[in-house]
Each structure stands twice: as C-alpha cells, then as structure tokens.
Amino acid sequence: MPEGTVHEAEVHAVLSARSKPRSNGTIKKKVVGLSAALVIALVLPQVVTNTYWLGLLNFLIIYSILCLSLNLILGFTGLLSLGHAAFYGIGAYTTAILMTRYHVGFLPAMLASAMLALVFSLFLGIPASKVRGDYFTLLTIAFGEIFRLIAQAWIGFTGGAMGIVGIPIPKVFGMPIRTETQFYYLGLILLAITFVCLTIIVQSRIGRALIAIREDELAAKSMGINTPWYIIMAFTIGSFFAAVAGSFLAVYQTTVTPSNFRLEESCLMIIMVIVGGMGNLWAPLAGVLIMTLATEMFRSLAEYRMLIIGGIMMLVLLFRPQGIFGSSAFKD
Amino acid sequence: MGLLETRNLVKSFGGVMAINDITLDLEEGDILGVIGPNGSGKSTFINLLTGIYRPDQGAIRFGGHDITGLPAHQVTRRGIARTFQNLRVFSNVSVLVNILIGQHTQIQNRLYHLFLTPLAARKREKAAEKKALGLLKMANLADRRDELAKSLPYGEQRLLEICRALASNPRLLMLDEPCAGMNPNEMDTLADFIRELRAKGHTILIIEHNMPFIMSLADRIVVLDAGRKFKDGPPEQIQNDPEVQDIYLGKEDDI
After folding, report:
1. Which CATH number covers residue B202?
2. pLDDT of residue B49
3. Among A162, A313, B18, B101, which residue's beta carbon has the most beta carbons within 10 A?
4. What φ, ψ does residue A219 adopt, rounded to 5°?
5. CB B66 within 8 A of CB B76
6. Which whole-number Å values give the CA distances from A69 to A66, B37, B178, in the listed order?
7. Residue A181 belongs to some domain of the structure
8. Are A71 and A278 in contact (CB under 8 A)?
C-alpha cells in the first residue's frame, strides 16, 4: 500500500517537473533525484533495523512534514511565524483526545485535527494578516504561548503537564500500526501526500501570488493579488499540515504533553527551514536531516549541543544566507 | 465620455495638499503625459488612481464605473496596470515567473481547481505561459526567461516591469517615470517599445521628467504644479508655453 501512494507521488512529481520550462537535462536530473530519494526512503527500514535509528527516522518524517508546511508560510510568503508548534500541538491534542476519550479511528481523528487547526489558524490568520513584520511574529508567539499554557493549565481537558497518555494503536483501513517500521511507512505516506499537495499549490498561480507577497507586497497588490487573502491561505494550509504531523506524533508517541509544543519547537523548525533553504519546496528537508542528526550526535553533550546547533546555523547564514538549497534569502 | 475621468480629486498629507482639485479626462487610445516639478503630486496622482491611496474628496470613474476608494488589487482587476517610479520587479524569481505573476487576474485557477480539475488547471497554466512568452518576445526578453529578474541589466528590468503590467491585459497602462536611471540607448529602446504599444491601441498614462522623451511620445500633456492641474494641451503648445517654462524649467533670468 505505501508503494502505491509513493508511485502516485512520483507521477505527480514527474508531471510537475515537466511543466516547468526548463531544459530536458534539469528535468531528467529532477526525476532521477526524486526516484532515487524514493527508492532510498522505501528500502531504508529494510536496511536500518535498529529501533533507535528507526525512531529517529520517524522523527525525521514528522519534522519534514512540519518544515515543508512552515516553508509555505516562511519561505514562500515571507512571514516569520513562531506559532507553528501550536498548530502541531492542536493536531496532536485533538487526535489524542478524540482517540482516547471518544474512540474515534485514526484517520477520522487526523482529518478532524487538521480541520480544527485550520479553523484556529483562521482565528489567528485574519487579524495577523493585517499586520506585518515584527508585529506578525509577536502575534504568532503569543498564540503559541496561549496554546501551551492552556494545554498545561486545563487539567480536566488536556491532562495538564502530564498530558494525555495511552493513545490507542492507530488502525489504517483496518490494519493496526504497531512497529517502528509500520509507523515509518505510514509517516512516509503522510509526508508524500503533504509534499504532493504543496508542490501542486506552489507551482500554481496561488504559489506565485505567495512569492509575489514575499518579494514586494505593494507590487503584488498592483498585480491584482488580494494579499491579505493569500496570507491567510498560506497560513491555514501550513497549519493544516502541521496538524497532520501532530496527529501522527500523537499515535506514534502514544502520549502528548505540553512540552512537545514549546516555543523552542517553533524555533527549531525555523532553524531547519533556514538551514535547508527557503523558497524551494523540498530544501528544508536538508535542514531537517542536518539539524536532527546534529542534535542526536551531540546528545551526550547535553546543554552544550545547543551551542553546536547555533554554530551550524551561524556558519550557514555566513556562507549561504539563502540556506543550503534555498532560492531566496530574507529581504536583501 | 473618456476611459478615465477624475472629478475634483483632493488628497492631503497632514497639512500639505498633495493633490488639489484635479479634474481630468483620458480618452481610449491616447498617450497622456503628466509632467511637473518635483513634489507637484505626479506620483500621488497615480497612487490615487491605482487605489494605493484613497482620495479625501472627489471621484474616479474608469470605463464608466466608479472606482473611487477601491483597493489596489480590485483596481487592477478592472483593467488599470502600472509600473513604479522605483523599480519593483520580483527580483528573486525568473523573468517568466514575473510575467506569470502579472497574469494573476487572467488565470482563473482557484485552490479547488488545482485538486478537483487538475488537467483543466494545467491547461490554463500552459496557456498563460504561452501568452507570457509572447509578451517577452515583444520586449526581446524571451531568451532570458529563466534568468532571475535581478540579474537583468537595469533597462531590461524596466522593460520587464512594463511587460508584467501588460500581462494583466489592462485597458489603461500607467508608467511612473519609466526613463528614470536609464542610459540614452535604453531610453530609445523604451520609446520604440511604447510606440509599438500605441500602434496596438493601448491607452497609456506616462509620468516623466525627460522632456524630449515625453514630448515625442505623448498625444497630450498635463502639467501639474503644487498639486493643481496647471496646464493641459498638446505637446507643442505646452513646450512653447512661457508659464510652463517658468514653473518647470525656471525663469530665464534664474539661469
């Protein structure tokens, strides 16, 4: 079943690659690169059998979905949102509560989580679309903190600091997902769906409108682009997929706690997107890989590892301000 | 009835009357030049017409509809496109994408089209791309379509900005100091390009400081001074008007 979806993703990617007016060489390179990445992703759990590494892979997938969706907001539209973890959290908590208390199946719970995140992102996005720059960022920080505090304080509903435990094993079309490998394939499908949907969006007139807003909002307006509308759209779509990642986290971890969704998480996602590169849809994946591996490698150094992460980020910003694979830097 | 009519437009910033009671008609197919000394309100006038500012008083009618106070993106949808005094191309994207963004109002794809009718959506994108290439060919930019806009020489970026405005298929094109910063060669290219547009029947409003340039292109010239419409007439008449020479070029004994 995972193979089926991935093939679909491949076909879409080939189609969308073809649509770009590039030389044949570039298209071929893209197709080869994408197919190679897919093959590697599919056989990886057959090679990596160590549970620790499989677990790491699953977190890589979660962060990949988060950073792809954040890239739509940050890299394409140019909005520095520090509230992404809140939508991730809304997704996780909604799935956790629906599955543990109301015995909803995983897929409906995930869909409901994503829809709820969409509604909340509208609540935030409508006022936030009226402000720009630092004020926008402040609003998103405030929203993120409000979410975390509610999760922590509303003990009856969210379990408080202990969070929600004992989230049942998810079933996908009747198939229970138990092992790390099974979670890996489920995550991979979700990642592929996210990637395909976002690819379709960014290569359309909508994606170009977002880029126009990032590049020059006044000029974008003069092109007939209703800029607040598109800012809200980018924000809600990004939040939708963040909630999908949260939903997956809930069933994978079987617990959710407020500490999963702190401001630091939002910052980490932003670092990953910046290191990987903004404006290129898949570029943040490189950031996810580098930052996750760095965090894991230096785990023994405890607090000092943040120093190393900071160092990596400074090196990237000094020598490649647009990120490793990015196409656009922050405003020149 | 003209394509564009303004009636008694007023716009002030603080205590300064930037635009003071301007009434103006623009006929379809005309090239109107707007000149005036620095600070006479030319750019404010364009910003009022394109919805970037709201007028304090007065009315703007375009194609028989009242567009007073409409936001900028809706003005563009009604058929007014513009360029900016300070170049505002989308620097970090390709030349082709710049034009495609300009076609925003022309491509009908909405979010649900992309997922529910992907083939039709792709078809519309393809058609838009073809049209964009046609525009780029007209400006001799077709072979640079994949280059980043910021890598183009200045004059070509100016041309690109005009093409991007044309991409919205406007009934009225407004150019805010298109010659600013251009060298004489680039200016000649631009003048030829504008003549080509005129031959195709485009209606154009040009703000320009460069007198030979604007006088050779415009069918009619409006002179603004301190926010007021000071003179309105054919280029020859304006050129020889001693009062215009006084306010615009300075009195002879000043030199």
Report:
1. 3.40.50.300
2. 93
3. B101
4. -65, -40
5. no
6. 5, 50, 39
7. yes
8. yes
By C-alpha distance, the chain A residue nearest B79 is: A224
State how many domains chain B has.
Answer: 1
Calculate how close chain B gets to A180, using CA atoms only, in Å.
32
Mutation for A interface: B104, B122, B174, B175, most A CBs within 10 A: B104
Decide if A201 touches B, using CB distance below 8 A. yes
pLDDT single digits (tens) B48-86: 999 999 999 999 999 989 999 899 999 999 999 999 988
Decide if A86 is inside a domain: yes
Residue B101 lies in a domain: no
Spell out which chain B residues touch chain A, with contact meaning CB-CB distance below 8 angstroms: 50, 52, 71-74, 76-77, 81-82, 84, 88-93, 96-97, 100-105, 107, 109, 111, 114-115, 118, 121-122, 125-126, 128-129, 145-146, 164-165, 168
- Residue among A204, A212, A332 whose CB faces B90 most closely: A212
Amino acid at site B251: K
Percent of chain B with pLDDT over 70: 96
Q: What domain range includes position A202?
A: 50-262
Q: A259-307, pLDDT tens digit by residue?
A: 889 998 898 899 889 888 887 888 888 889 988 888 888 777 777 777 8
Mean pLDDT of B199-209: 91
User: Which pLDDT does position A314 carry in this prediction?
Assistant: 86
Closest residue of A to B92, CA-based? A328
Q: What is the pLDDT of residue A19?
A: 42
Residue A252 lies in a domain: yes
- Single-letter code of the amino acid located at B87: L
Rounded Cα distance between B64 and B133, Å, is 32
> Strands, E, within chain B: which ranges?
4-13, 16-26, 31-35, 57-62, 65-66, 80-82, 172-176, 203-207, 220-225, 228-233
What chain B residue is nearest to A12 in terms of C-alpha separation?
B118
Q: Total domain count for chain A? A: 1
Q: Give the strand pairing for A171-172 and A175-176.
A: antiparallel
Task: Give A-chain residues touching B82 at CB under 8 angstroms.
Answer: 222
Task: Write out the residue range of the structural domain in which residue B226 sits.
Answer: 4-92+154-254
Residues B29-52: pLDDT tens digits?
Answer: 899 999 988 888 888 999 999 999
3-state secondary structure A57-82: HHHHHHHHHHHHHHHHHHHHCCCCCC
CA-based nearest residue to A77, from A316, A293, A278: A278
Residue A223 and residue B107: Cβ atoms within 8 Å? no
Window from A26-30, A92-96, A111-115, A132-136 with minimum mean pLDDT: A26-30
Per the domain annotation, does A58 fall within a domain?
yes
**CB-CB: which of B72, B114, B122 is closest to A19?**
B122
